Amino acid sequence: MRTTGIGLLLAAMLAGASLRAQTAGAFVAAPGLDLSGNWAPIVHEDQPERGPGPPLVDYAGLPITDGARQWALSWDASRLTLPEHQCQVHVASYIYRGPLNLRIWEEKDPQSQRILALRQYISTYEQNRTIWMDGRPHPPEGAVHTWMGFSTGKWEGNMLTVYTTHIKQGWVRRNGLPVSDRATLVEHYIRHGNLMTHVSVSTDPVYLTEPLIKTETFNRIVQEGQNWLYPCSYVVEVADRPRGAVPSYMPGENPFVTEFADRYNLPHEAVLGGAETMYPEYQQKTANAARAKK
Amino acid sequence: MRSVFLLAILSGIVYAQSAGAIAPSPGVDLSGNWAPLLHEDFPERIPGPELVNFAGLPVNDAARAFALSWDASRLTLPEHQCQVHVASYIYRGPLQLRIWEERDPQSQRVIAIRQYIQNYEQNRTIWMDGRPHPPEGAVHTWMGFSTGKWEGNILTVYTTHMKDGWVRRNGLPVSDQATLIEHFIRHGNIFTHVSIVTDPNYLTEPLIKTQDFNLIIPEGQNWVYPCSPVVEIQRPRGAVPHYLPGENPFLHEFADKFKIPLEAALGGAETMYPEYQTKLKAAAAKR
Hints:
The complex is a heterodimer of chains A (294) and B (287). In chain A, 32% of the residues are buried. Chain A is of the alpha+beta class. Chain A is built from eight helices and 13 strands. Chain B is of the alpha+beta class. Among the domains of chain B are: 1-26, no CATH class; 32-48 and 82-216, Beta Barrel (Lipocalin), CATH 2.40.128. Chain B is 17% helix and 31% strand. Chains A and B meet through helix 1, strand 1, strand 2, strand 3 and strand 13 of A and helix 1, strand 1, strand 2, strand 3 and strand 13 of B. Strand 1 of chain A pairs antiparallel with strand 13 (219-224) of chain B, so a sheet runs across the interface.
């Protein structure tokens, strides 16, 4: 269809352009390809973490610092029952892992038809995100931080690459492992027909020792008879909590520190994560250590 | 999707937040980039209709008189070179069509369905928020003022306040009193566009047309339509090419070429219907 359309239009342009005021239409070169549409996640990748959620004190495979580990070990899951945290949004570097539905559309200049911005609506927490495509700079360091941050995009071939700064503090795994508001995010959106791969590369000078790379896949859908919402209103979930109390564990007092490791017969140091635990070689190291113990 | 809904139900009782909720909302998503399938009425849509071929259109005598006075050279006038096809005609062209939704950021209800029609670079808005049409004397535009509603999964659009245009691009006019009803019907990656034009000035019956579109993924291109008026023919100032009544030299050309009666080529509601072919055959047999 496209070949036929372009052929017809080019023929009409060539025939008419020299004498006439108008053409039958023109295609102007513009980078990239169309990502717009409604996308649903395919959650086969890391499903246990993304659906049911990660076990407590499972930090394996994440390049976290000692500071992040300490932060997470003091985190009590009951914190999520506090009104202040009940509707806390997943930050841009984490939100694509959820059961979200994603709507992407283009904002084009009405005259030139150049893309000014790619807009996203993410159903989880009803987040609206803007990826500026018009070459504008990022705001100064002290500018406001938001859940979705400030994003600029560019096309690298047919791959959309997005750079995001000014994100609020969030987490890299929803069992307490934090990501700081100094983190930056590089994303790649790669469309293959009706599938789209989303690659995210998080860098955090405070809580990560190496960039954290993740991928997710989305499937293009035709939305029919529905809107995607995420109702969230604070309620008192635990009635007898003293005012100002925040559930937490003091250092060395987390009762779940060995639960995950013991259930899966993993070395305790493996579940506490760190860059080394990301790489395949670490499996060999733990296997060797297990053999040595025997 | 179903699991999300179940999670929403399960968690809604105790917790402040759900894992997401699907709120019922009428209709189907039409957004995307669409290219026309031109198999239907191709000769009229791309090469263009013959002069004085008004067959199959429910035109009245006034429309016919208007069209017979129309000289194709009028298109060379700077004032007409970039004249936009009105909403009731523009979907017949070699357009590319981009559709997107404008939603309320909070409720996610569709406020409007927007269209960019590459032919003449037209931006069109179909209001879905129940607003009324403007009063009769309000400004008329090429795309008019449109409101839409869902009838099942069919988007039905009602348009008023269009400018003067044409029903066939060989001079047959449509007036600025015309109204348009459209149905957008999606079947997977194809959608059918049905248009029903009613014109108290130039049509004796509604004119119904259909067009099909195919969903595409634009890649490496923008769709534009450059048009700047130029002097194509040096003419006396104010001269407008036309034919006075009874002087159109092309009156018989189409009818003679295809060996059809002149009264058939001159159109009218009767020529729209299959029975008219039988009538013509009977008349020819009698001759």
